[in-house]
């Protein structure tokens, strides 16, 4: 959801006349779109803001804006702790960023504006997408659940659903631009339609996406086990372009912990859903979220979680050490688990899940897979001479693109020129190795299809300068830190990561923002 919002913020800025800062250039505006789910988001934000003090001193007129969930939560605290910030805005008023930057510049004073309810649905805002072939499509915002560990409902508000016609109109417009794949977004996608008076709306929406010509892949995230119904399973299994991939948060395998978390399902219901999904789609890749060390979690509770992980056989899991969030009921619960115990349990969970994920991926060796070629997903691709892509089940595959088979694998493959296969193109290849978190395919490419998404990527790169051609649309990073021997230096901090905040770096034309 934060990446989706970051793309909208970048689109708003470009619509207002800003241009993205070239790689290595010092930006005039830095925007932090923050997360508040975990405690380290606070630490990383303020650490990175501290690093910008000497940069801003050496760049008169530079502006810093902080938005998103942490801004909605901390509000004026940000300006007290970091008075060099120019704009603070929240989750409900993303559209106000260009106006607030202009006002801060004109008035030479910081602007703080936090709305208490959604003013404009983010999906109606301009966007600068980070990918030509894949797009996020928000179907709802906010959440009506009351999980005791989660701060999202208080920061994103109650659930509001978009009308199906509006969602499908956006999907059709994206496909017309060359998009092959969409991901439907919501804090709880399968409660979609409740506010519209149609509890079965999500399954209907999946089927309707199947009728959009040219749309090859549909994904969604995240469902809640409480609302996961069999009509959704049927829609997934029978709609050809809906991927057999399911991310369904477990959080804990202990009924006692789930009760304290105020998660309105129990392990048997959860495992029953997994069983029905696998019966309908034996090839489904199922991933999850798990929290370790929730207040009151005993060794027996944790063992229950390990048992569910063994039984569910997840393809992968996002695992978290419990982080108290002020303002949530769990933060004040008794029996907070000590850090050493949490760390030790976390290590055991990760080891078990890595073993299961590795076994899943080894079983895919010699399997033919269809990939949409991605950009920037293989950090070692340049060194290994590979490209990377996503299979239909969401797995990341690093593949060789030097040869295209002209027949069976033992016949004479022909060479593929460097750069022929583009991000957004579709290839088929055979898996040669499985690792815990990715697959490798080092044989020839068996099939290759050029797509309109690849055409769009190529045209976009040809239109850019050589420096800008490799620049991502929404960058995660910081301006170079300028040493200032006259000022006290902030304490060392880990670099910004996507789990903490998205940093959108933009430059303002010399004549001003418009």
TrEMBL record:
The UniProt annotation puts the region (Disordered) at 459-501
Main localization, broad class: cytoplasm
- As recorded in UniProt, its EC number(s) are 2.8.4.3
Keyword Metal-binding part of the UniProt annotation: yes
GO MF terms on file? tRNA-2-methylthio-N(6)-dimethylallyladenosine(37) synthase activity
| Positions that bind [4Fe-4S] cluster | 143, 147, 150
Question: Which purpose does this protein serve, as stated in its record?
Answer: Catalyzes the methylthiolation of N6-(dimethylallyl)adenosine (i(6)A), leading to the formation of 2-methylthio-N6-(dimethylallyl)adenosine (ms(2)i(6)A) at position 37 in tRNAs that read codons beginning with uridine.
Q: How is the co-factor bound, per the entry?
A: Binds 2 [4Fe-4S] clusters. One cluster is coordinated with 3 cysteines and an exchangeable S-adenosyl-L-methionine.
Name the residue ranges with Polar residues bias: 459-468
Q: What name does the UniProt record give this protein?
A: tRNA-2-methylthio-N(6)-dimethylallyladenosine synthase
The TRAM domain covers which part of the protein? 362-445
Name where it's found. Cytoplasm
SMART domains, per database record: Elp3 (SM00729)
Organism per entry: Frankia umida
């Amino acid at each position: 959801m934060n990446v989706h919002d970051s793309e909208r913020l970048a689109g708003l800025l470009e619509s207002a006349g800003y241009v993205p800062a070239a790689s290595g250039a010092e930006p005039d505006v830095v925007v932090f779109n923050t997360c508040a789910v975990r405690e380290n988001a606070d630490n990383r934000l303020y650490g990175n803001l501290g690093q910008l003090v000497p940069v801003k001193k050496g760049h008169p007129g530079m502006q810093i804006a902080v938005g998103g969930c942490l801004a909605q939560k901390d509000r004026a605290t940000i300006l007290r702790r970091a008075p060099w910030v120019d704009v603070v805005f929240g989750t409900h008023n993303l559209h106000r960023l260009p106006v607030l930057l202009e006002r801060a510049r004109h008035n030479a004073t910081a602007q703080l504006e936090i709305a208490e309810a959604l003013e404009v649905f983010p999906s109606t805002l301009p966007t600068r997408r980070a990918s030509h072939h894949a797009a996020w499509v928000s179907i709802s915002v906010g959440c009506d659940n009351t999980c005791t560990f989660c701060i999202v409902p208080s920061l994103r508000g109650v659930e509001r659903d978009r009308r199906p016609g509006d969602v499908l109109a956006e999907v059709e417009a994206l496909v017309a631009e060359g998009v092959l794949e969409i991901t439907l977004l919501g804090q709880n996608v399968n409660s979609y339609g409740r506010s519209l008076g149609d509890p079965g709306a999500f399954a209907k929406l999946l089927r309707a996406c199947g009728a959009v010509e040219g749309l090859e892949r549909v994904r969604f995230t995240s469902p809640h086990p409480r609302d996961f119904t069999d009509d959704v399973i049927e829609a997934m299994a029978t709609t050809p372009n809906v991927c057999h991939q399911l991310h369904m948060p477990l959080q804990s395998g202990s009924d006692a912990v789930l009760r304290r978390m105020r998660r309105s399902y129990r392990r048997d219901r959860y495992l029953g859903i997994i069983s029905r999904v696998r019966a309908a789609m034996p090839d489904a890749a199922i991933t999850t979220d798990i929290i370790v060390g929730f207040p009151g979690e005993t060794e027996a509770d944790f063992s229950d979680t390990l048992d569910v992980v063994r039984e569910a056989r997840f393809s992968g899991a996002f695992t978290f050490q419990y982080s108290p969030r002020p303002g949530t009921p769990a933060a004040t619960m008794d029996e907070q688990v000590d850090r050493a115990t949490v760390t030790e349990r976390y290590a055991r969970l990760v080891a078990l899940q890595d073993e299961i994920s590795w076994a899943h991926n080894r079983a895919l060796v010699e399997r033919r897979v269809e990939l949409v070629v991605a950009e920037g997903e293989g950090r070692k691709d340049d060194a290994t001479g590979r490209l990377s892509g996503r299979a239909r089940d969401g797995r990341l595959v690093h593949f060789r693109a030097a040869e295209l088979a002209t027949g069976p694998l033992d016949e004479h493959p022909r060479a593929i020129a460097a750069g022929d296969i583009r991000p957004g193109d579709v290839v088929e290849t055979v898996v040669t190795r499985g690792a815990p978190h990715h697959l490798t395919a080092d044989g020839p490419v068996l099939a290759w299809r050029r797509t309109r998404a690849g055409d769009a990527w190529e045209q976009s790169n040809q239109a850019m300068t050589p420096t800008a051609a490799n620049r991502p649309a929404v960058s995660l990073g910081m301006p170079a830190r300028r040493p200032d021997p006259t000022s006290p230096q902030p304490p060392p901090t880990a670099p910004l990561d996507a789990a903490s905040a998205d940093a959108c770096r933009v430059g303002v034309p010399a004549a001003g923002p418009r």
